[in-house]
Design goal:
The protein is α/β, with parallel strands linked by helices. The chain contains seven helices and five strands, in the order H-E-H-E-H-H-E-H-E-H-E-H.
């Protein structure tokens, strides 16, 4: 990345406030921030969350050492599962800088409340995500189809937002 672009990016990323931190989603973005920190253009702590693609296919494509600079400069690495935690260690991350940060919701924390449809209203479902097999778009479409067939009395909408290798199949 040209130095002029690095300086502009660093100026925009350098946080203000009493406890500044730059947090990146995906190791691919964390690599850029780590480079800015290495050169001194960012001086605050940095953290990166790893979601999956960034420590599987991306690493396989680029090489195992692709995150060497990020691992050296990051203050905190946040995999979303124990599997990805172990993967980061395998790739050379310092274990003391890794904390697993799960993204799921504990459904038992919420009490079920039955709801009745409001007359003349619609119910909208929105699915946002990369269109790959593991994200389950086909399963969601099938489930929505089942809902429409079982409850023809409901006015329901289903919007799918995203792109990816299965977009043509989904459309």
């Amino acid at each position: 990345m040209p130095i002029s672009l690095q300086v502009r990016l660093a100026a925009r990323l350098q946080p203000k406030g009493t406890q500044p931190i730059v947090h990146s989603h995906f190791g691919t973005a964390g690599r850029i921030v780590a480079e800015l920190k290495k050169t001194g253009l960012i001086t605050c702590p940095i953290s990166t969350v790893f979601h999956g693609f960034d420590i599987t296919k991306f690493v396989d494509k680029e090489a195992k050492g692709v995150y060497k600079n990020l691992f050296a400069n990051a203050d905190l690495l946040l995999p979303i599962s124990d599997l990805w935690h172990r993967r980061l260690v395998e790739l050379g991350a310092v274990a003391s800088r890794i904390r697993t940060q799960r993204l799921g919701i504990d459904c038992s924390s919420f009490e079920f409340q039955e709801r009745k449809p409001v007359p003349d209203s619609s119910l909208k479902f929105i699915l946002v995500g990369r269109m790959t097999e593991k994200k389950g778009h086909a399963i969601a479409i099938e489930a929505f189809s089942d809902l429409v067939n079982r409850r023809p009395d409901l006015n329901v909408w289903f919007d799918i937002i995203g792109s990816g290798p299965l977009r043509d199949d989904i459309e």
